[in-house]
Task: structure prediction
Amino acid sequence: MGIFDIFRRRPAIRDASALADFVDQNAAFVAQKGIYEYSRARAGHYSKVLFREKEFREASDRARWRAYPLGLAMVAELVEGVLFPARAEDRQAQVDAIRALTLSVFDRHPVPPALGADEWRTLRDDLERNLARIGLHPPKRAMDVPAPYAEAYFNLMPIHASLRGRDEPTVHNYLRVTTCNIQDELTRRIDVAAAVESLRAQRPSAAA
Result:
């Protein structure tokens, strides 16, 4: 990457494929950054030692993959909120299209060795249920999207429960700030009309 590449605008999101990439990348970011930053903060001066330990790396890998479907659910709901005004009259069809798209993103990834096939399937089922709930209430503000997931996310932290203290509100605030930032980026980059039309053309059977 050239020195001036960091100043270039990211490409617009105009179709379902680009939207899927956005969902995947940001769900992974939500899952990984929060876990690593919380662990680093909790370990303090010993963080470098902790991050070199095999047991911690394995625990972090399991936590990251378990958190990834939570990230997918949150980012999918942000997408629905941004696209809602363009297809409010046919919201359920759009929710179904976003659900199918998000499940196809999950299915890009092979079963993580850290989890195994049975747990990975369970996580997919949980994700599908969470996605189905998006259409059961009006679109939320970005900062409110993490509320149903914050406790489960916090409980995944690869730090012994006795050392976590009362940090759940801090982690919840991290998720609130992060989802607001993700929504801001999506709003800047997305061509709403083109993305809605591309989603409309997707076959809902992709979620089967």
Observations:
- The CA atoms of residues 36 and 60 lie 8 Å apart.
- Confidence is low (pLDDT under 50) at residues 3-7.
- The chain has nine helices and no strands.
- The two ends are 39 Å apart (CA to CA).
